[in-house]
Design a protein that fits this description.
This protein is α/β, with parallel strands linked by helices. It is 36% helix and 23% strand. The protein is built from 6 helices and 7 strands, in the order βαβαβαβαβαββα.
Length: 187
């Protein structure tokens, strides 16, 4: 199997990054993580990238045409797919247009419910019976693209934001790799 080069965009701890790196070491997994891009110079995910000898780039998203810079980096590294793993910045229309259905995101809710931020507090406030995570293609609207896969669990009466996050991350670590396999099985 010829693996595709992947770039993972992060903003935080990098738990999904770490999981994808571990999965990519399996010869049957369709991607190699070749690059990590972050918009946060203090993101813990940078430590994970360093430990795994994966190049990383900190991008200043406040400068004009930062997405052009990102596109140049992606092209230089022959990136075939972008995985958004806790990247807390809206992807530019230019980047979406250039990569099309080659950008996927993992979101901590059962989309189309609870798009955007503060997902866990909204799940609790709405007294949801179940929640989970969604892997979807990225389009120009926030958390809107075609759904690739979803996983769910039932909310318990004693759940709080912390337990919902923990339970969701466990499902994310299953759903993200499964979605990547599903995408490349079609091709």
């Amino acid at each position: 199997m010829v693996k595709k080069n992947a770039c993972v965009f992060i903003s935080g701890k990098g738990t999904n990054l770490k999981n994808l790196i571990l999965r990519s070491r399996d010869n049957s997994f369709p991607i190699n993580i070749k690059l990590v891009i972050t918009n946060k110079k203090n993101a813990n995910g940078i430590i994970i990238a360093k430990k795994n000898l994966i190049p990383f780039v900190v991008v200043n998203t406040q400068i004009k045409n930062f997405d052009t810079h990102i596109l140049q980096i992606l092209k230089k590294n022959k990136i075939s797919i972008i995985c958004l793993a806790g990247y807390m910045k809206i992807i530019s229309k230019n980047l979406i247009k250039k990569f099309g259905k080659k950008i996927i995101n993992i979101h901590p809710s059962l989309l189309p419910k609870f798009k955007g931020l503060n997902t866990f507090s909204r799940v609790l406030k709405n007294n949801e019976k179940k929640t989970g995570c969604t892997v979807h293609y990225v389009d120009e609207k926030i958390d809107n693209g075609h759904i690739i896969s979803q996983k769910f669990f039932y909310v318990n009466s004693n759940d709080d934001e912390k337990t919902l996050k923990q339970k969701t991350q466990i499902l994310e670590h299953q759903a993200f790799p499964e979605a990547i396999i599903k995408i490349f099985r079609k091709n």
